[in-house]
Each structure stands twice: as structure tokens, then as C-alpha cells.
Amino acid sequence: TEFDLTIRGATVVAGGDVVACDIGIHDGRIQALAEHLPAGRRDIDGRGRLVLPGGVDGHCHFDQPTMDGSRMADDFLTGTRSAAFGGTTTVIPFACQMKGRGLRAAVDDYHLRAAGKAVIDYAFHLIVSDPTPEVLANELPALIDEGYTSFKIYTTYDDLKLDDRQILDVLSVARDHGAMVMVHAENADCIAWLTERLEGQGKTAPGYHAASRPAVVEREATHRVIAFSELVDVPILIVHVSGADAMRQIRWGQDRGLRIYAETCPQYLFLTADNLAAPGFEGAKCICSPPPRDAGNQQAIWDGLAGGVFQIFSSDHAPFRYADPQGKQVHGEKAAFRYVPNGIPGVETRLPLLFSGGVREGRISLPQFVELTATNPAKMYGLYPRKGTIAVGADADLALWDPQVEVVISNDKLHHAVDYTPYEGITVHGWPMTVISRGEVVCDGGELLAQPGQGRFLRCGLPRPAMPKSARPLFDGDLGRLF
Ligand code: URP
Ligand code: ZN
Ligand code: ZN
Ligand code: ZN
What is the mean pLDDT of residues 347-353? Predict the structure, then answer.
């Protein structure tokens, strides 16, 4: 056989091990892993490089419609471009149902938004905001069968939140059809009550966003949805966990033998509530929900990444420009915190921040890094073993890292369409230099080589972590379905 591309002499993280080998690629997939492979039609010298599976960002928002007049800065071109430059080769953004409309309409609309733009592969999660009888009985089951096998539900935000009864209904559909449910857990009524009291005291600056959503509010909703997971007997995944309180609830559920999975994000390791309390309106740059907490909670999150409370590390990239009447300042630069669009950018900095702070600082191992950022999200959302691993038969989605290079993060080096990064000035060690998607070089040495539209839509399989325990296959891949 002849390889289309051979990567020679690199250090490769494959299947939980760190090995020195060549990688032979043919027709977009990995065809061989061995010590000395014959030359390909093209060779890449991998000496001095660390070859990791391309990252799978299981939580990012691109071109997602909003209800308040704001606009997300990144579409599928700038969002996937930014992801790729940060070492990510698969993204899973959200097709969001609008209340009063169907889920199918959201999916159709989102495909139009993505068409012809992505430079790396993408799948969709759904957001279920209006679980009507039609959605529960027909639309959702049909979409799960078509490859939209994960969906997010909210306990907060007026235009998205479900009440407890609705959550139980939706969990029950997930159980019957084998889908993975992601939960945004914050108690909406507590937030509304606290927000009113703060506003009554004139406390409307961005910094008070954190005070309106304290850890107890997240802890309560986290515990509640864990109880629902037990009641319905279905696994759930708690997204963007911010600190020790919610983590204790998750650990409690996990220790009970419940399948409670959890995700955290860079903002809970590298930001604190102090960043929201910056002078003037600047703190709006770091407004996201749940809010970043304090140094003690940052440490708890690191411990949870190292100790197995978290399976997934995502960006929760939610891109709003700062100095923009369609961005953070959609209600002006003096707006009360409740009118500031929630979310921060981070799809490009996700992997370098965790690599530097985690692997280089000795807090997590290199195989743990790969599991948290690629393998586990691929498994959790039904894309494994095609994505998330370096193995024979897998898509040749690879990031060739220089593990030594020192980079001072600054927005002018990033490739998103946002006008700031909350991580400005942070020094990291290690950055992906060459990024390959299905055997094609997407980014190399700071240059984009892919064409818009090169990224393909991925239908997701039923996630193994969501399967009833009694029906689990022997293997994660399609072969496993035979057993
Ligand atoms: O504040 C955040 N995280 N905005 C993005 C939407 C979400 O809830 O994940
Ligand atoms: Zn061929
Ligand atoms: Zn959320
Ligand atoms: Zn999000």
C-alpha cells in the first residue's frame, strides 16, 4: 500500500500510552501505526513534535440565534477556524429550539448556518426548550435516530428553562432512545430573586453577576437533577461545573453508583469572580454562567480533573464582541449585569491552557489530557472510535504540538471574530503547530490551508455511556453492536 501522508519520528499519544512511532494515513484515515513505515506521497517530519488526537470540543456555541438583539461573533467559518488553530478538529455546537417552534426547524436552520463554512468536522447537539407532546413523542425520537444523539436542557434563562416536570419528561425520552442529556444546572428562581435584591440596592455593575449566581444556586440545581437522574434511571452530564459545591453533589451521585458525568471549562481554572469586578464595564468580558468563583474553587476543579470527577473538558465558547452594540453592550455600556449576554470566547485557547496548566505543571498526565479533551467527548457523544483517538481505522484528525514553545496569549494572535480574550497576557507552554483533519493539513505554522466547507457534518451514534447497563456492547465501535 501507499500512504497519502506519513508522519515520521513523532511521539504519539495513542490508546492511553505515549509511544514513539510513525503514522501512515490513507484516504483520510489512519492505516498504520508502526516504528518504521515506508514513505508516503507526502511526509511530515514529526521529530520534536507530540502528536495528539485532534481535540473534540463537546460544548461550543457558533452562530446560535439569541433573543435580545445580540449576535454571536463567530459563525461556522471563524469558529471552526479558531478551533483548528487551537488543536481541535471536531466541534459540537448547539441547534437551539425556540419556544413555540419545533426542534426540526432548529436543526434545519442550523444546517443552513453551517453549510459551506466549516473547516473541520462538526456534529450538533440539540437544545430542547419546549418539550411539547409532539416534540417528546415524535420529533426528538426521530432526530435521535438520525444522529442527533445528545441534547442540552436548562434549569435557568427564561427563554430556555424547563420546569421539573418537563425535565422528567425529557429525561424519560432520553432513557427510551439512548440519548445523552447535558444539563445546565442553576436555580432560576433563586437567581431572579437575588438579582432583584441586588438591583434594589443599585448593585448593577458586571461584578454583581457573580453575586446573583452564588455556588449554592448551582449546588441546589445540581443535586436536583442528580435526583431526577436516579428517579428516571438515566445517565446525565452536568455541564460547565464551576467549583467545589457542585462537585461534591456530583461525587455523591457517582459514589452512589449513579451514572453522573461532568464537564468543566477553562474559565473555572483561569478566571475568578474578581475578573468580573474589573473597573467600569470591563468585567462584562468575563460574564458567563455559572460565574467563575475563587482560587479555592479553581484548585477544586484541578483536583476533580486529576481525580476523575470530570470526564470532559470543553470550552463553552460563547462569542460576543465587547465593544459592539450587538455584543456585550447590546443594552449599552452602562447596562445592568442582567442585560449583558452571557458567555466568553475560548475555543482556541482551551487546549493550550489545559496542556500548560495541567500537563506541563504536573497536575494531570498526558493521557488524561487526551481523554478529557478528545477521547471522552467522542465517546460521550457517539463519535468514538472515528474521532478522539489515534488508532488504525480512525479518522486522521491529528494535532502536532510543539510542547516547548512559549506563547503569551493575546487576542491579536487568535482566529475567532471576538474583539477580546479573557486570557489576555497569560503565558502558556506548548501549542499545536500543525493540525490535520481527515489527512488534510488544515493549519500549519500559523497559516490556514483548508477551504471553507471542507469540514463535514457528522451523525452521532448512540453514546455508549448512555446505554442501559444491561445492553452494553463489548466494544465502543460499530463492531461492538454485533456482540
Ligand atoms: O454563560 C454561558 N455559559 N453562556 C453560554 C450558554 C450556556 O449556558 O452554556
Ligand atoms: Zn487511495
Ligand atoms: Zn449552559
Ligand atoms: Zn454553553
Answer: 99
Distances (CA, A) of 235 to 28, 53, 87, 318, 365: 34, 26, 29, 26, 27
Strand partners, 398: 53, 436
> Which helix (DSSP H) or strand (DSSP E) does residue 437 occupy?
strand 427-437
Longest CA span, the chain: 73
Between the CA of 403 and the centroid of ligand 4 the distance, in Å, is: 29
Ligand 1 atom at minimal distance to the Cα of residue 287: 1
Q: Is 184 in the pocket of ligand 1 (CB under 6 A)?
A: yes
DSSP H helical ranges for 115-214: 133-134, 140-145, 164-177, 188-200, 208-212
Quote the CA–CA distance of 84 and 478 in Å, as a whole number.
27
For ligand 1, atom 9, which residue shows the shortest CA distance? 316
Q: Which residues contact 392 (CB under 8 A, 6 or more apart)?
A: 30, 31, 32, 33
Please give the Cα distance from 76 to 115 (Å, whole number): 8
Identity at 412, one-letter amino acid code: D
pLDDT at site 474: 62
Mutate to test the pocket of ligand 1, among 96, 320, 342 (most ligand atoms within 8 A of CB): 342
156 lines ligand 1 (CB under 6 A): no
Could you report the predicted ipTM of this complex, rounded to two decimals? 0.92
Reduce the DSSP state of residue 69 to 3 states and report it. Answer: coil
CA 318 to ligand 1: nearest atom: 5
**How far is CA 139 from each of CA 94, 97, 134, 148, 174, rounded to the nearest angstrom?**
16, 11, 6, 11, 12
- Its pTM stands at 0.97
